[in-house]
Q: What sequence folds into this?
């Protein structure tokens, strides 16, 4: 739950961009600051890929690395936000935020994400999906839990000044306070985390084949298929989640954007737990991915056909049916995004066994790393291109929040265009799941047993 707070970046990224002087008022863009989140996800995946062997060998070392890096990165981010407020448009501040939130926190994220997974798989071998789903759900639920707390903290920590400076002052202080709080929580988790008493981790001459030998022992297409469909699912999820706040404003729910964000985070966590628990009762865990992709394709197609994002709220009048369809798409993409995460380690374990599972899982999380660089950046590029090509399609929405009138410029055509790309990618992912990822030995044995009966 501590490391999952990384997803809260979008809540304050615009205010951080304005406070540090990196907001482009002409294009209404916070693009430079958004790269901090992209780098965090990239280094999460890459650190998991390269440090998977450390997690495999020493769970206490890896969880301590996660604790120190995450808390240090968060404190450093707070410092460089403060520095950026004192020195507007400072490249040093921007690079410092990238380094702390992106690289240092990213290393903490990667090792922290892997550390509980194999441990839980060893403790609950009969219900691996449910066990790992609970842990990964904590990562997804963090936004729902932390967002309202953070939004309450900022005004209390703010000092007098202009509205943006006031908010910015509160944000950098909040990062410092949370760095201390999360260090305590994560260090407690580090002390409590352990493998079952009866588990003996092979070492030296006892150790079996290497990670790459294990992967090569099965058809290589299966691993490539798993990596690619995981990458596509995360890319599509990040593309829509990054635009979620503005899409909610487009459909006439601007005043409820915070509530909708919390609900979508609950769906994200619920998908991690629900889809993984569901997979425990299936012969082939790959079936879960087929379900996720079919639901995503169906809802994306419906919203494209109905032009739901642009038609749900016109001239102050809401079309409730279209609002429900757009929300259903956002919520189910969040659920599928989370479900894709929680099922990966168990799908890999079904194919390759528990030997080197942390290392293989870590290598597979490199897909998350590249999705972190491409998902939200792809969506931002599409939305910006549509805004430049068709400025007449931009819409200004006014709304009342906490008794204060606000206005926001939205780009419904741009958000709809993102759906064409994500819809096509979901189709590719479904084809990979159907034709490239072969059934595991466990699934084949279950099918043979059923036929024998």
A:
């Amino acid at each position: 739950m501590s490391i999952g707070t990384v997803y809260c970046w979008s809540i304050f990224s615009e205010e951080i961009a304005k406070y540090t002087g990196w907001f482009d008022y002409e294009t209404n863009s916070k693009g430079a600051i958004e790269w901090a989140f992209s780098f965090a996800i990239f280094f999460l995946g890459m650190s998991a890929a390269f440090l998977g062997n450390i997690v495999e060998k020493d769970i206490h070392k890896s969880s301590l690395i996660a604790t120190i890096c995450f808390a240090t990165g968060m404190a450093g981010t707070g410092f460089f936000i403060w520095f950026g407020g004192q020195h507007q448009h400072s490249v040093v501040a921007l690079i410092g935020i990238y380094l702390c939130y992106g690289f240092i926190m990213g290393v903490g994220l990667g090792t922290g994400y892997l550390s509980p997974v194999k441990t839980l798989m060893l403790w609950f071998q009969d219900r691996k999906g449910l066990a790992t789903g609970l842990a990964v759900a904590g990562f997804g639920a963090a936004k729902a839990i932390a967002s309202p707390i953070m939004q309450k903290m900022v005004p209390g920590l703010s000092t007098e000044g202009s509205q943006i400076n006031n908010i910015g002052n509160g944000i950098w202080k909040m990062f410092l306070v949370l760095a201390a709080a999360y260090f305590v929580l994560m260090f407690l988790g580090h002390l409590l985390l352990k493998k079952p008493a009866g588990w003996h981790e092979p070492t030296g001459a006892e150790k079996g084949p290497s990670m790459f030998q294990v992967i090569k022992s099965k058809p290589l297409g299966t691993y490539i298929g798993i990596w690619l469909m995981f990458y596509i699912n995360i890319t599509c999820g990040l593309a829509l989640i990054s635009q979620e706040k503005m899409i909610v404003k487009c459909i006439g729910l601007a005043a409820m954007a915070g509530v909708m964000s919390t609900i979508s985070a609950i769906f994200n966590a619920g998908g991690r737990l629900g889809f993984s628990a569901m997979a425990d009762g299936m012969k082939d865990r790959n079936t879960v991915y087929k379900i996720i992709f079919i639901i995503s394709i169906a809802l994306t197609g419906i919203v494209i056909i109905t032009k739901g994002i642009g038609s749900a709220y016109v001239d102050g009048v809401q079309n409730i049916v279209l609002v429900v369809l757009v929300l259903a798409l956002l919520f189910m993409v969040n659920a599928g995004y989370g479900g894709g995460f929680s099922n990966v380690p168990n799908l890999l374990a079904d194919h390759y066994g528990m030997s080197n599972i942390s290392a293989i899982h870590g290598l597979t999380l490199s897909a998350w790393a590249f999705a972190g660089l491409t998902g939200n950046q792809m969506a931002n590029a599409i939305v910006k291109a549509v805004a430049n090509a068709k400025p007449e399609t931009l819409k200004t929405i006014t709304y009342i929040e906490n008794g204060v009138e606000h206005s926001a410029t939205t780009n419904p055509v741009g958000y709809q265009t993102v759906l064409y790309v994500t819809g096509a990618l979901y189709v590719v992912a479904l084809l990979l799941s159907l034709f490239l990822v072969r059934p595991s030995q466990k699934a084949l044995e279950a099918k043979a047993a059923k036929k024998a009966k």
Observations:
- Strands lie at 313-314, 317-318, 395-401, 404-410.
- The longest strand covers residues 395-401.
- The chain has two domains: 1-194, 209-453.
- DSSP finds 16 helices and four strands in the chain.
